[in-house]
Amino acid sequence: MKNYIYILALLMLAGMAACSQKLDTTIKIENHEMKKNTQQSSDNRLAVMTEGKEKMETVWLKEKALYQFEAVADEFEYTVFLFADDEQSRLKEAPSDNANKGEQLYTGHYSMYLAEKDSTVAYKQEVLEQKGELTFSSSAVQAYPLNLGKNTVIAVIDKESHPNFYFIDKGEIKEIQQSESILPIVGTKVKAVNQKFIQTAHLVGGEDWIFTTWGFDKEAMVLYKHDETQVEEQEGEKWYKLWNEKSEYFFPFLNIELTSEVLEKAKQGIPLGSPYPIGTSISNIKKSNPHYIDEGRDAIDVPYVSYPEITYYFEEATGIVNAVSIPGERLKTTLTNVKKLFGTPQQEIDKGEGKLAVYLADKYSIEILTDKEGKVKQMFLRKK
Predict the structure, then answer these.
(1) What are phi and psi of 33, to 5 degrees?
(2) pLDDT of residue 140 exceeding 90
(3) Interval 280-336: pLDDT, tens
(4) Which of 209, 152, 215 lies closest to 185 in space, CA to CA?
(5) Residue 145: how many CB atoms within 10 A of its CB?
(6) What is the pLDDT confidence band of residue 44, given thresholds at 50, 70 and 90?
(7) Across 373-378, average pLDDT
């Protein structure tokens, strides 16, 4: 009897093992099929839509196109060409905002051609047809890519200095709509900022400068205004000169929300809007982010390194950062709002052109400098 029970138990265990093995095999097969289906779905995506589109050899376009550049979208790599069958060239007879006298101008009904990278064939896109005749100057770059993260926005600047933006969606180049019209820009330059935003610079009435920052909603295919700052006359011209001359430079824009947590972080020496706490070596910061726009000494002979969004002050002997400042454009707030969050400052000093409010945070102090109207111009975090 005992032998019978023993044999029965062995048979049950064997059956369970077989079922377990079968179940495991089934799961592996199902997982394999899921991966296979996902791969097939990815492989079945067309990099470039070809149906009903004229095609042209890329080797020919590389010689004849007025512009060509690389772009990425939906994990595909592309080459974009700008070409017109009826392109004509002439010398500029009189100077204008975008071209000097004697410069070569190219005019025609241009089209974009889209090719998967290293492909021998490119396909004509209809997106520029409604723009009619376009004119480009030999001395200015009027069509170029703007890299926003893993995707590329294409900018084309017309002869009236209006920027038009395009995006590769499901294998076709489509125009990006704008939530509101964009003013004519100065020159032909538009910048990509922080992998997320586009920034434009405008001169209004020949005096004041406007720096506008745009966000891109990929799903809705819309460019929306994120922030805008107007800077008067000489100050604006100074900002624009920096903006125009240094590729890594951009105008500071609203990207920080002032909250009550700022005081708690300040007690740990962590500045608002920076990954580097007080006490970091300036050489490590420069190594990590080599695209600073300026370095030198301030009005009281303190050495600094300046980035578009933050300035680091450091001890000359050790190179250790002991203070930082951020521009008020990143906050777009007032001293009144600051007091609502932080309470009454330990000190409030009249500086003639504005006020200086000081809050204490253990071993550190937060200093807020305002203009006459009470708008925050700069915020400092210093080690006491």
Answers:
(1) -65, -40
(2) yes
(3) 999 999 999 998 989 999 999 999 999 999 999 999 999 999 999 999 999 999 999
(4) 209
(5) 17
(6) low
(7) 96
Look at strands 191-193 and 321-327 and give their pairing: unpaired
Which pLDDT does position 46 carry in this prediction? 83
Query: Of 369, 350, 346, which Cα lies nearest the Cα of 358?
Result: 346
Q: Are 182 and 162 in contact (CB under 8 A)?
A: yes
- Tell if the pTM clears 0.85, that is, is over it: no
pLDDT of 20 over the 60 cut: no
- Cα separation of 203 and 296, whole Å? 30
Measured distance CA(358)–CA(365) in Å, rounded = 7
CA nearest to 252, candidates 152, 162, 327, 320: 327
DSSP assigned state of 182:
P
Contacts of residue 360, defined as CB under 8 A and 6 or more positions apart, other chains included, come to 346, 366, 384
Between CA 194 and CA 203 the distance in angstroms is: 24
DSSP line for 42-104: HHHS-SS--TT--EEEHHHHHHH-SEEEEEEETTEEEEEEEE-TT-EEEE-SS--SS--TT-E
User: Can you tell me the mean pLDDT for 222-235?
Assistant: 94
CA nearest neighbour of 326 among 343, 344, 308, 314: 308
- Count Cβ neighbours within 10 Å for each residue of 322-356 and write b for 16 or more, e otherwise: bbbbbbbbbbbbbbeebeeebeebeeeeeeeebbb
Query: What is the Cα 107 distance to its own chain's centre?
Result: 31
Q: Which two tokens mark 317?
A: 């002997």
Percent of the chain with pLDDT over 90: 78
**C-alpha span between 52 and 139 (Å, rounded):** 36
The backbone region for 173, taken as left when phi is positive above 0, alpha when psi lies in -120 to 50, beta otherwise, is beta
User: At residue 39, does pLDDT exceed 50?
Assistant: no
Q: What pLDDT sits at residue 248?
A: 84
Amino acid at 4: Y
- Rounded Cα distance, 351 and 152, in Å: 46
